[in-house]
Design a protein that fits this description.
Blueprint: E1 2-5, H1 13-17, E2 22-24, E3 33-38, H2 46-50, E4 57-60, H3 70-75, E5 79-82, H4 88-101, H5 106-114, E6 132-136, H6 140-151, E7 155-159, E8 170-171, H7 174-180, E9 183-186, H8 200-204, E10 210-214, H9 223-232, E11 235-240, E12 259-261, H10 270-288
Parallel strand pairs: 1-2, 1-3, 3-4, 4-5, 6-7, 6-9, 7-8, 9-10, 10-11, 11-12
The protein binds nicotinamide-adenine-dinucleotide.
Protein name: D-isomer specific 2-hydroxyacid dehydrogenase NAD-binding protein
GO molecular function, one term: oxidoreductase activity, acting on the CH-OH group of donors, NAD or NADP as acceptor
Keywords: NAD, Oxidoreductase
Length: about 290
């Protein structure tokens, strides 16, 4: 069988997959591919599925299948899978890094030093210790972030529509997360329920000076409403790895104050690429029976 690796994976993955069939990353072989393996970059839409008539299995190395037209794939008899267990630590560490960078002004301090400025008085820091972190979504990544936040002396509360107990956070209503949190971190999938859930109305319920961290999906927030809240001072900072459109060309966030941006790096650790490889190999073993 032909296995098409459409996106970048660990360098050893093609060799590891060779036991299951012919491995290629040549997109002109799409028509021959029985297995299509993607990360976030390749969007598997109807046109792509139509161009892959032999395809029987699509694996997304990552959490969620929102970059794949799952219904259409299924209608063509194609199974769709992802590797949700692999990336939690990598994303939780990035969320934590974004959270701790904001009150410590790490980026502004570094930039100003290189501009020859000494902003010792201007850059007053605040501590995470004693603050409340509110999680929206406490699945795998939210859980790992909660553990790290508690180690820094934060209180952790969480709202999750589908989770009824947690060992690491007090579960509260969504409005309580908005009202009580000094930091809010988003960890839901992108669904019809979560699309645009952080908007002017929900921001109005948050504390003045709240910090928001988004490592889930850009479309969970309304970027213009975030930019307005940053401009008015209602929100003290927005740190994000994900955008309405990626790259975020023309986004109002690019001109708003106190925005910290990374280019969708959540899953991009060396260790995670190896874990993704392990998860993909395990899935192909099962699929091929080898
Ligand atoms: P998960 O499935 O373990 O957890 C998601 C949680 O969200 C679940 O507990 C679920 O009950 C909850 N949820 C669903 N709908 C909700 C709603 N309407 N309101 C409140 N909670 C709701 O997933 P995870 O592994 O923790 O990943 C979370 C998300 O992170 C993924 O769906 C993906 O979009 C994103 N992600 C981003 C990167 C990145 O590179 N930045 C990498 C991996 C995952």
């Amino acid at each position: 069988m032909v296995i098409l690796l459409a996106d970048a994976f660990a360098p050893d993955l093609p060799g590891r997959l060779a036991t299951f069939g012919e491995v290629t990353s040549d997109m002109s072989r799409l028509g021959d591919a029985e297995v299509l393996i993607v990360r976030s970059k390749t969007k598997v839409d109807k046109a792509m599925i139509d161009a892959a008539p032999k395809c029987r299995y699509i694996i997304r190395g990552g959490v969620g299948v929102d970059t794949i037209d799952v219904e259409y794939a299924k209608s063509k008899g194609i199974a769709v899978d992802n590797t949700p267990e692999a990336s939690s630590l990598a994303v939780a560490e990035l969320a934590f890094a974004l959270m701790i960078a904001m009150p410590n002004h790490l980026v502004r301090a570094d930039n100003s030093m290189k501009e020859g400025k000494w902003l010792k008085k201007e850059l007053e820091r605040t501590e995470l210790n004693g603050k409340t972190l509110g999680l929206i979504g406490i699945g795998r990544i939210g859980h790992e972030l909660a553990l790290r936040a508690k180690a820094f002396g934060m209180s952790v509360i969480a709202y999750d529509k589908y989770v009824t107990s947690s060992e690491v956070a007090s579960l509260v209503s969504l409005d309580e997360v908005y009202a009580k949190s000094d930091y809010i971190s988003l960890h839901t999938p992108l669904t019809d329920e979560t699309r645009g859930m952080i908007n002017a109305a929900s921001i109005a319920k948050m504390k003045k000076g709240v910090y928001l961290i988004n490592t889930c999906r850009g479309q969970v927030v309304v970027e213009q409403d975030i930019a307005d809240a940053l401009n008015s001072g209602k929100m003290a900072g927005y740190a994000t790895d994900v955008y309405n459109k990626e790259p975020p060309e023309g986004s109002p966030l690019l001109k708003a104050p106190n925005v910290l941006m990374t280019p969708h790096l959540g899953a991009s650790t060396e260790e995670n690429l190896l874990r993704l490889g392990d998860s993909i190999v395990a899935r192909l073993k099962k699929y091929s029976g080898k």
